[in-house]
């Protein structure tokens, strides 16, 4: 017990110095972390990488949720959601994000749609608690393949939803692979309104994430492949976005890097995944990591120094 307490204290001290014990979860493979700050805690929603050690393909049958009050000690909660909780979905617990509105928690997820709309699609689940249980909030996908492309063979572009709610309560949904899309959401959070729009960013791959500091919006995203993370800035949530450069390099031993960015107790964090668990970790058996994020005086972002560097 004493040794465990000492480890926990030294972990908190290291984190205050900006060095984390990465990866933060080692008993499971976890990917695509989406962090939510709610009250005095941070929640990390992650996909569960379940590919056997000899299979180099995504195998993800459920999402996981962890919470922490200090960014160092993480508690795992019961599995809050699976793709099979959406009757119209076939599987694939790909990247997702939870946002709170009026005491309800909305979880936008990527799944594999059933054969009525082949390819990936975006669904939304809802709960009264950040740890669930969550249930399908609309009984059908909010975004399907046929809404975003005239080419029926592009089945990969409706993935990686990220959401943002402005101070006046307008919600926006962003998503995409190769092409970045966005649309406004209605007040009910489960229908979109207006036309689907696009944003062109250099070498956009996937994994958009919006955050705001002061007057500036930041749109970070996976760049090229293997993925680095790059970002753009704007004074308006609707753009235009100005590309600003690389935020994080390729993360050890993983082709993907999938970040989220939050402020918690006056510090900024960059939360992502790598493939660093020894022996079998890699692009299909990933692990969530945390590092600190810092700003330059001109509001641009300093490149993240991964604890592994
Ligand atoms: O986890 C499956 C996919 O890998 C995600 O949707 C992408 O962002 C990439 O991380």
Describe the protein in words.
Keywords: Carbohydrate metabolism, Glycosidase, Hydrolase, Polysaccharide degradation, Signal, Xylan degradation. Residues 1-15 form the signal peptide. Pfam families: Glyco_hydro_43 (PF04616). One of its GO terms (molecular function) is hydrolase activity, hydrolyzing O-glycosyl compounds. This protein has 309 residues and is mostly beta strands. It is built from two helices and 19 strands. The protein has a four-stranded antiparallel sheet with strand order 1-2-3-4, with no helix packed on it. A four-stranded antiparallel sheet has the order 5-6-7-8, with no helix packed on it. The mean pLDDT is 94. The chain binds beta-L-arabinofuranose. The site of beta-L-arabinofuranose has 13 residues, from β1, β5 and β13.
Quote the distance from N terminus to C terminus. 31 Å
- SSE sequence, one letter per element: HEEEEEEEEHEEEEEEEEEEE
| Low confidence ranges | none
Structural class: mainly beta
User: Helical region count?
Assistant: 2
Write down the overall mean pLDDT.
94
Family: Belongs to the glycosyl hydrolase 43 family.
GO molecular function: hydrolase activity, hydrolyzing O-glycosyl compounds
Signal peptide: 1-15
GO biological process, one term: xylan catabolic process
SSE blueprint and pairings:
Elements lengths: L1 H15 L13 E9 L2 E8 L14 E6 L6 E2 L12 E13 L2 E10 L6 E8 L7 E2 L8 H4 L13 E4 L5 E7 L1 E7 L6 E8 L4 E10 L2 E8 L4 E7 L7 E7 L11 E5 L2 E8 L12 E6 L17
Antiparallel strand pairs: 1-2, 2-3, 3-4, 5-6, 6-7, 7-8, 9-10, 10-11, 11-12, 13-14, 14-15, 15-16, 17-18, 18-19
Bound molecules: beta-L-arabinofuranose.
The site of beta-L-arabinofuranose has 13 residues, from strand 1, strand 5 and strand 13.
């Amino acid at each position: 017990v004493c040794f465990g307490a000492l480890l926990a204290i030294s972990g908190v001290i290291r984190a205050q110095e900006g060095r984390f014990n990465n990866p933060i979860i080692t008993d499971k493979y976890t990917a695509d972390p989406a962090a939510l700050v709610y009250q005095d805690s941070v929640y990390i929603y992650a996909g569960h990488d379940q590919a056997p050690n000899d299979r180099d393909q995504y195998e993800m049958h459920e999402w996981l949720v962890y919470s922490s009050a200090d960014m160092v000690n993480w508690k795992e909660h019961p599995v809050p959601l699976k793709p099979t909780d959406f009757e119209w979905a076939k599987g694939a617990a790909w990247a997702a994000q939870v946002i709170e509105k009026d005491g309800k928690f909305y979880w936008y997820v990527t799944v594999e749609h059933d054969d009525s709309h082949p390819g990936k699609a975006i669904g939304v689940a809802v709960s009264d608690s950040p740890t669930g249980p969550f249930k399908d909030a609309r009984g059908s996908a909010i975004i399907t393949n046929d809404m975003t492309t005239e080419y029926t063979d592009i089945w990969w572009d409706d993935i990686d939803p990220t959401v943002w709610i402005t101070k006046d309560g307008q919600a926006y949904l962003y998503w995409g692979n190769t092409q970045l899309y966005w649309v406004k959401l209605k007040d009910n959070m489960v229908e979109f309104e207006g036309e689907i729009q696009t944003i062109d960013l250099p070498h956009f791959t996937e994994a958009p994430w919006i955050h705001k500091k002061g007057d500036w919006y930041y749109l970070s995203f996976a760049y090229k492949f293997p993925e680095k993370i790059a970002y753009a800035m704007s004074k308006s949530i609707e753009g235009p976005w100005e590309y600003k450069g690389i935020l994080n390099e390729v993360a050890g031993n993983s082709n993907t890097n999938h970040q989220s960015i939050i402020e918690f107790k006056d510090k900024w964090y960059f939360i992502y995944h790598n493939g660093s668990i020894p022996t079998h970790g890699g692009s299909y058996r990933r692990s969530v990591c945390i590092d600190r994020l810092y700003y330059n005086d001109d509001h641009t972002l300093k490149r993240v120094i991964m604890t592994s560097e």
